[in-house]
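Lab manual, section 2.4: Encoding a predicted structure.

Procedure: take the sequence of the chain (331 residues), apply the prediction step described in section 2.3, and record the output as structure tokens. A sample record is shown.
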Amino acid sequence: MDSKQLAVPFTEEQLAESKGFRVTVFSGFDGLLDHQLLLLSHAREIAGQDTSGILVVICYEDFSGGQVESDRQILLSPEERAQLLTAMGYQYILPWALPGSRQQSPAEWPVSPKLLKKKGGRLVPGADMWSNAGFRDLLTKTMENDRRFRALTDQSFSDTDPENKVYKKLTGLIEAGELTEAAHEMGFAYPLSGYVVEGNKIGRTLGYPTANLRLADHSKVLPAQGAYAGMVRVRGTWHYSMINIGIRPTIDAENVTIEAHLFDFREEIYGEFATIAFLGRIRDEMRFSSLADLKHQLDKDRHQAANILQYLAPENADKEFIFMQERIRWS
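Recorded output:
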């Protein structure tokens, strides 16, 4: 992802120059599940509700060329996790790729564990971090001095079982196209981000020009093929939209596409970075006997999308994420 799109106001160099933080919280933060919200809440208690005294370290799997291992699908990319936490009011966020399958010495890590230990203040790791071998030395003091909270986070982690029950439930909802339910489960509309590329421009001839999205991270869970109502953020503004994911069976039976028609928007945005936030499903992917039939269906889709968005689109659409529940906004 282009660094200018990354809403993370903190780097390792800034960490080294800082006076330090009252508390540093570590977790994967993939989807901001309940046990991760507990971590943030606990960190605020330690910091006296002062989020400026909190450093949030996003721990994610070792990446190669911006992509996670091919067999691992994710709900949020590290960049999206950082943007979400920023939108929630956390100012100091440091994405950190954990050592991967090969053995890496601390000297090879993107951020020095010693620096984190020195600057981090009280360390509050998520239960998804306790078993990571690379963290054992870093967390020794925390494990000794905060056994009660470790037990609490372990219990929360066990109760929500994010790597199985919750994670599988969310991915199942997204893959089935149940984006409204998924949004309310997560607390925000599920996003897909990437760059706008040229398509075959058939939509333009039908009165429905589309922005074709090339994903920035192909490891993201993809919604089922079909038509959706949602919002698209480009150039800092969200726009009502209808989105299609599929193989465009009426026109081109080979290429899978993600394309969005932005309501009342006609600017050229090729090469621009954009984010789609899904709010509801309109229909399954369909094949039409003619472009005239397709045009008729698109007219119906737009009307249905407008109705869905009028009901579901939240008032806080000036944010980088479309929040659905206050619990996630202020967790």
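Check your result against the sample. Residues 3-160 form a domain with the Rossmann fold fold (CATH 3.40.50).
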